Amino acid sequence: MNRRHFFNSLTAAAGAAALPSTLLAQPVRGxxxxxxxLFDNRARTPLRGWHGQDVHCESALIEGKLPAELRGVFYRNxxxxxxxxxxxxxxxxxxxxxxxxxxxxxxxxxxxxxxxKTAKFKAEQEANEFLYPAFGTAIRPxxxxxxxxxxxxxxxxxxxxxxxxxxxxxxxxxxxxxxETLETRGIVDFGGALKGLPFxxxxxxxxxxxxxxxxxxxxKMVVYHLSPTGDLKRHAVFxxxxxAMVHDFVVTERHLVFLIPPxxxxxxxxxxxxxxMIGAMQWRAADGxxxxxxxxxxxxxxxxxEMPAFMVFHFGNAWERDGVIRLDCVKTQDLAIxxxxxxxxxxxxxxxxxxxxxxxxxxxxxxxxxxxxxRSEDLEFPRVDPRVVARRNRYVFYPVAATRGANSLDGVMRxxxxxxxxxxxxxxxxxxxxxxxxxxxxxxSKEGEGWLVxxxxxxxxxxxxxxxxxxxxxxxxxxxIARLPYWTPYCFHGHFHA
Length: 498
Ligand SMILES: [Fe+2]
Description:
mainly beta, 34 strands, binds fe (ii) ion, 39% strand, disordered N terminus, Methylamine Dehydrogenase, Chain H, six-stranded antiparallel β-sheet, single chain
């Protein structure tokens, strides 16, 4: 029995959570809190959050075989701290950003997680209380709100750009982190020219590295065109066709495309501490979705079409031929996912999420007609092969509720958009999987040829892990799992830097 098998059998027998540290192969610095008086649901332990500490594990326990060509850093970001001074946030979206680096090397897989040292994080850690309003929790400001960055939690995604990792949050500036240590270096303001303008957590990066992003604030939209190393090439600020929350977008070879859901916002109530941002949102289904199409070469050339209302957070990809844009997204019915389901989960209750479904939208620029079709699987967090962004794609990858009755996304799915066929694997009850990203195999140029890499939580072991799948053979099961000796808070999004 080699060391790996020894630890496998040991962790299986002991449920791993109770392992004394002397038996762990991995040095662990820092530790997740073992109890929160304000949260008790072992199926959703990651929603407890950490208390602001940095954590590092030098060597995760590997099951299976790590592909020899899979080398790089998987950066992830998500809300990691939910309680201060006896108060707990009502909403998952509110927590302070905790950036993770899963490093795939010849030695195995290491993990490091560090809180982004935003101005908000530093002030609130020092005060040991929440000082600023949050997205989903009504908090009367105890310090002046100098700009939108006063509330910046930097908690939504992480992407390598030039010499830094950016920690992204849609309401304000990106934060620059050291790619090795994850130390916070400052905010991105493009030389001061665009200080404080929002920079969304869903940039789109074309195969040549061309980097597109946007932000929305008080009815205005800003769009950005950056070079592959992060230099600002062009930007524009303009009035939106409707004032709303816009979380994600897509690009084609010619256009930036936004679906703007019908959400009104009572900002006066937020500023007065009477309502959270979410509490101040109103769903106006009769207004429908505004489809905003912006010319990539000339941001002043914009067009607006309309389609029936649904709520959308995330997009997979878009491409166009002969004036017809095809894009995919994930739809939910309305705002209930934010207003009802997540606050219940944050209180430790089990709640059934309204299903969200893969949805395909056709925008015909010749006729002005918009078509919509949806599938039935319950899923979220679509991603495509980075080599097909803005180009015609065949596959979309999702975490999916794969086991009947599962109350989490416990599997992964590859959808073939040409045939409608799926390749699905379930990891089973007690497992919740996060977004999974496609990492191309070096030397290959075929869409889908590579590994699907993601992160998950195992409720029985009370541990988090990273998964590696052969992206074209998901139903064969993961080729490798890298287990941590601790659990981590859930993340939203990230990118693999090969
Ligand atoms: Fe997102």
